[in-house]
Amino acid sequence: MASFLITGASRGLGLAFVKELASRKSSEVSNIFAGARSNVPALQEHSKTDPRVQFVKLDVTNPDSVKEAAAQVEKKLEGKGLDVLINNAAVCHYDMQKMSNPTLEKDIMREMTGLEEEFQVNVLGVQYTTREFLPLVEKSELKKVVNITSTFGSISSASDPAIAWSPCPAYKITKAALNALTVQYALEYQNKGFSFIALCPGWLKTDLGSQMADLTTEEGAKASLDIILTPGQVYNGKFPMIKVKGWETQEEAASHGGYAGKNVYDGRNIPW
Ligand SMILES: NC(=O)c1ccc[n+]([C@@H]2O[C@H](COP(=O)([O-])OP(=O)(O)OC[C@H]3O[C@@H](n4cnc5c(N)ncnc54)[C@H](OP(=O)(O)O)[C@@H]3O)[C@@H](O)[C@H]2O)c1
């Protein structure tokens, strides 16, 4: 029986985690803390029908908000620990002009949009959240901290055309920094039984991923949980890609059309 807290649970992958966890038996999932800036109708619906789903007001960029959220969760857990913290909230700014016209003459590095905000949410937000919830995770059985990252944060894959085409340098920089943060925690806490995982959930149909993406949020959440709930510390300090049936080889991925063929979901560890 495990307890979970998900940041950015109001929509996209975060909301899909809430839905997927709520579909599992109480013998597997005890508490689902849906951390979000506001209690959106989709979350209210879930908490009405399933007492395991509890909204927790949480703006990851505001240290006071994170502290209050951690105190609230601690009270609700009544002495028990938090098994899994999923740092999912993020923002991404694409240069829309460059996106619609890739040949446009534009210096997207000097005109980089969103770097400060993306650092606040995607890196500092994860640090604020992790440091406040760490004592609760330490008290738990599973002791997992999952940082939802992206292949866009892979420095060694940066020139890969499937990554290089997307004009969002600030997002790529912050996800690389998040990966580095994950590794530092993984090294520091491995002897205490923790797993810090930099997990790529695949290219998903969300506001951030667009409707052109390969996978639904349901597929992304399910496949992410397969990795998260793998027993032991095998993924500590690793950067795994999800594994999805029918997408495990180049040929299978190509058969889905569109961008498929470029993105394979085979559970591999992505190079940093
Ligand atoms: N979609 C993809 O293709 C894809 C691929 C690789 C990795 N990822 C990663 O997957 C995760 C989820 O992405 P998504 O596609 O589901 O994005 P999304 O649909 O844009 O949702 C982003 C979530 O983050 C929340 N958020 C933003 N700033 C916040 C803050 N300051 N405090 C708390 N919550 C905040 C949003 O809350 P509000 O509703 O309040 O704005 C929203 O719930 C992200 O880490 C993303 O980098 C996504």
Polypeptide structure, described:
The chain has one domain (2-254): Rossmann fold (3-Layer(aba) Sandwich), CATH 3.40.50.720. Strand 1, helix 1 (12-22) and strand 2 (29-36) form a beta-alpha-beta unit. The relative contact order is 0.13. Helix 1 crosses helix 8 (217-228), helix 3 packs parallel to helix 5 (115-138) and helix 5 (115-138) runs parallel beside helix 7. The model has no long low-confidence stretch (mean pLDDT 96). With 272 residues, it is an alpha/beta fold. The chain has a six-stranded parallel beta sheet with strand order 3-2-1-4-5-6, sandwiched between helices. It has nine helices and six strands; from the N terminus they run E-H-E-H-E-H-E-H-H-E-H-H-E-H-H. It has helices at residues 12-22, 41-49, 63-77, 96-100, 115-138, 161-164, 169-189, 217-228, 250-254, and strands spanning 2-6, 29-36, 53-57, 84-87, 144-148, 195-199.
